[in-house]
Design goal:
The protein is an all-alpha fold and 133 residues long. The chain has one domain (2-114). The protein is built from six helices and no strands. The protein has helices spanning 2-18, 20-26, 31-46, 50-72, 78-97, 102-130. Helix 3 packs across helix 4 and helix 4 packs antiparallel against helix 5 (78-97). The chain starts with a helix and ends with a helix.
Length: 133
């Protein structure tokens, strides 16, 4: 029973980390909460040491702040914002991978792929539900 609950919590954290960019862009949550959730999810996904957590925290905080800046940048159109967010996400992955061991990188990459699949499935389901019949 505990294992099932733990798996559900981990899955929820993985989804929340994957959706952090979207959440910030939508303005639904404060940046501090997003940073904390991303660090927790990364820790659960990759099994960070205390030193790695200390190194990851400023990377995550910078990423969240950069995303917030893009969200608030009125000079960018939707396509430019999307491109900038993608660029920021790639930089974030590169920066985090820089503090992870090769084994942790594999675990984190697998977790991100699982997350991506879950998000795509949810978006597809929502689109199907909203489509006129």
């Amino acid at each position: 029973m505990k294992a099932k609950s733990l798996l559900q919590i981990i899955a929820a954290l993985m989804i929340s980390a994957a959706m952090a960019t979207t959440t910030i862009a939508a303005g639904k949550i404060n940046p501090e909460a997003v940073s904390k959730g991303m660090l927790t999810a990364l820790n659960n996904q990759a099994g960070l040491s205390a030193d790695q957590q200390d190194k990851a925290k400023p990377i995550i905080e910078k990423h969240v702040a950069d995303l917030q800046a893009v969200k608030n940048d009125a000079t960018l159109d939707k396509a430019a914002k999307r491109a900038k967010v993608l660029e920021l996400r790639q930089q974030y992955v590169t920066d985090i991978n820089g503090i992870l061991t090769p084994d942790q990188q594999k675990k984190w990459a697998a977790a991100r792929e699982t997350n991506k699949a879950k998000v795509k499935a949810r978006v597809k389901k929502k689109a199907a539900e909203e489509a006129p019949q």
